[in-house]
Amino acid sequence: MSHLGSRPDNQRFGAGLPRRRGTATLLCRSDLEEMGMADEVTAAQRPAAALPGPLRARLRGRAGWLLGCGVVAFTVTIAIYVFLIRTHLPQWWMDPVDLRVYREGGESVRQVAPWYKPHVAAPLYSWPKRITLKFTYPPFAALVFTVFSLNTLLVMEKVWVGVNIAAFLIALWVTFGALGYRKVAVRAGATLLVGAVVFWIEPVQRVLFLGQIELVLLALVLWDMCQSDRRWWKGAGVGIAAGIKLVPLIFIPYLLLTRRFRQAAVAAGTFVATILLGFAVLPGDSKDWWLHGLFLQGGRTGFVAWEGNQSLRAIITRFVGSVNSAAPVWLVVAALAVIVGLGCAALLDRYGHRMLGLLACALTGLLVSPISWDHHWVWIVPAVAVAAHYGVSAIRRSAAWAALALAALLAGIFGAWPGRLWGQPDDLGSFSRGLIWAPPNTNPNIYYKLGDRPWYAEYHWHGTQLIVGNLYVLTGIALLVLLAVVTVRAVRNGGRTGVRPADQAADHPGVQPGEPRSASTSGQRQQLRLAGDVRGANPPRPGEA
C-alpha cells in the first residue's frame, strides 16, 4: 500500500471517508474501482440536490441578470395589481368573506358577542341562521384565527394580503430550493420570474379576493416536506396544517409509503395534539365536530355540485344530477385515485423525483377530497415551477419543449382571465375571473335555503360547458395520468425520465438516478463501512510512506 502515498492530492478520497486514529493511508479512485466502490463513494461525496451540469453551465455568470429580471418582473406585477385595486371598486378585487368567517370564529373563541352564545353547547358551530357562511373548520383552526380578531377588519384585510403574497413567494422559494437552486441570486431570480406569471392564476387571485388561508398552508406544507429527514420536527407542519384544514392529512400515508415512519409519526402526533388542544379549550365544539361527525358533513361547507367545487365528487355529482346518488360512485372512483396517486407519489420519490412525488400526493388530495374549491388549487403554483425547471434542465430537446409547454398550458388553463370575455355572472359578486366561471352556475345562497334541486344549472350543462365548467378537475385527472406515465418510465428506465432528477433528498446523498432510495442508502453504508475496514486493516509500518 506504500504506492498510495505518491498519489496526487486531487486523486485522494480521504475527505469523504472517516479516518481512523493512527491510520495515514488514503484510498485513491483506482483502488476503489478495483474494489467496485468508486461510484458509491463518489456519490457520497457529491453534494445532494444540485442542479444538473448543463443547467449550471448556462446559469454561470448570469445570476445577476436573472435576479434583475425577476425583480423587475415581479415589481411590475405587484404595481399592476395595486393599480387595479386603486382604480376599481373595492369589491372587484377584494371581498374577504372567508377572512370575516375566520375573524368571527376567533371572536367566538374569545367569547366576543354576537358570535359567542354561552347558552348553546357548541357556540362555534351554532351561529345565527341569518348568517349564510358557517364556520366549517376544526376547533383548533378557531384558536389560530383568534389573531384575526385582535384588530379591525379593515387593518386585517391589508395585513392578510401582505401575508398571503409573502407565503406565495416562500412556497416558490422552497420549491426551487428543493429542485437544487442553491445560489441565492439564481434562486431568488427564478422565484420572482415564475412568481410574476403564476401570481395571475385564478386560484391565487381567488385566495387574495376571499382572504383565504390556502397560500399560507401551501407554504407551510412545502417547507415541512422539503426539510431534511434528519430534522426531528419534520412532519409537524403537516400536522398543524391538517389541524386547520383536513386535506393535508393525505401526506401522512405518503410519508409511510416513502418509509419516513418517524416523520409520519410526528405529523400524526401533531395532528392529535391539535385535536386535544381543541378539546381543552372548546370541549363542546370539539365534541360536535369530532364525535358527532360534523366534519363528515360535506354539504355543510356548500353545494357539492357548485361550479366552484373542482373535485372528483363534484364532477360525478354534476353528471349524475343528485348529491346523494353520486356518493357511491364517488367512493369507488376516489379509492382508485388514492391507490394510483399515492403509488405514483411513493415511486417517484423512491427514484429521485421528490418534488414530483410531493405534487402527485397533493394532486391526489385535491381530487379525492369531497370539497376542493377553486382556491384550493394553489398547488398549481409549485407545479408550474417544477414543469419550467424540468424544461430548462431536460437532456433531450423534445422533453424540454414538452415540459415548458406544460408549464405554459397550466398557467393558461388556471389563468385569471377577465370575466368580460363571457359576461359577468351575477351570483359571484364581482369575481368571475377564470375559465371555469364561463358556464352558468347556481347561486350558493339558493342551495343554503332549498337544499339539492334537480333544476340547478350545473346539472344541465352541455357541450363545451361540460369541459370548461370541470376544467380544473379534468386537468387534474390528465396530470395524474401523466404522472403515472412518468412513473412507469422511471421504473422501467432506472429512474431516467428525460431529465436529471436534481431534487433528490439531501439526507440521502448516495441515491443515484434509477436506484431505489432505501436500497442505495443501505449499499452506500456497507461500502463506506468496508472502506473504513480496509484502511484500518493494514496500517503502515514504521518507515513506510
Key features?
545 residues; mainly alpha; 24 helices; globular; disordered N terminus; disordered C terminus
Largest sheet: none
N/C terminus separation: 9 Å
How much helicity do the residues have? 55-70%
Strand content: under 5%
Mean pLDDT: 81
Could you name the ranges where pLDDT drops below 50 across 5 or more consecutive residues? 1-48, 504-515, 518-545
Radius of gyration computed on alpha carbons:
27 Å
Continuous helix count: 24
Give the count of structural domains. 2
Structure class: mainly alpha
**What string gives the helices and strands in order?**
HHHHHHHHHHHHHHHHHHHHHHHH
The count of strands amounts to 0
Structural overview:
The chain has 545 residues and is mainly α. The chain has 2 domains: 90-167 and 202-296, no CATH class; 303-531, no CATH class. Helices cover 58% and strands 0% of the residues. The chain has helices spanning 29-35, 38-45, 53-59, 63-87, 90-93, 97-109, 139-144, 153-178, 184-198, 202-210, 214-225, 236-244, 251-257, 261-281, 283-291, 312-320, 323-350, 354-368, 380-393, 397-413, 444-450, 464-468, 471-492, 517-537. The longest helix has 28 residues, at 323-350. The protein is globular, with a radius of gyration of 27 Å. Mean pLDDT is 81; it is low at 1-48, 504-515 and 518-545.
